[in-house]
Design a protein that fits this description.
Layout: E1 2-8, H1 16-24, E2 29-34, H2 43-51, E3 57-60, H3 70-82, E4 86-89, E5 94-95, H4 99-132, H5 145-157, H6 162-169, H7 173-181
Parallel strand pairs: 1-2, 1-3, 3-4
Antiparallel strand pairs: 4-5
Length: 185
Amino acid sequence: MKIGYCRVSTLDQSLDLQLDALKKAGCEKVFSDKMSGGRFDRPGLEDAIKFARSGDTIVVYKLDRLGRSIKHLITTVNELNRNGIGFESLGESIDTTNPGGKLIFHIFGALAEFEKDLIGARTRAGLLAARERGRIGGRPKKLSINEKEEVRKLFTSRIQSPKAICKRYGISKATLYRVLKEAPS
């Protein structure tokens, strides 16, 4: 049995294009979600996977409808394969129920993993080059070293309340207490 799964990212988008394609592909049952693909909980996808039995095939309009990321996509398809369930993507003409489809899917996965590694290597190289030029990334410090010392003095002398200190320096109570825990510079 072919089981369809479709997803759109927002409530105002329509599933019609995907539903028509899945019906045309011979899907007897279709599950859907109207939510971002980045979410971990997708009830329609979970229901489709629970519904599928060994020998069935889960069909999607395009690969990005199934997985949050390439890693998630590969994990999901491998889980389906372990349970004897095939996977088909209409947009990319991938069908893991045959050897050619499995090969193409794994090549896509390997290329995506390679691309992810290249992006990571370029990012690390860029950060290293920036550090060598004296640039340090990350969030700017809320308080300078002198301001931290002032905060400590105000707090220990009890001249101002913690709330007043926070307001004066534009910091949260968590930041205040983190400064107090730090060893003075």
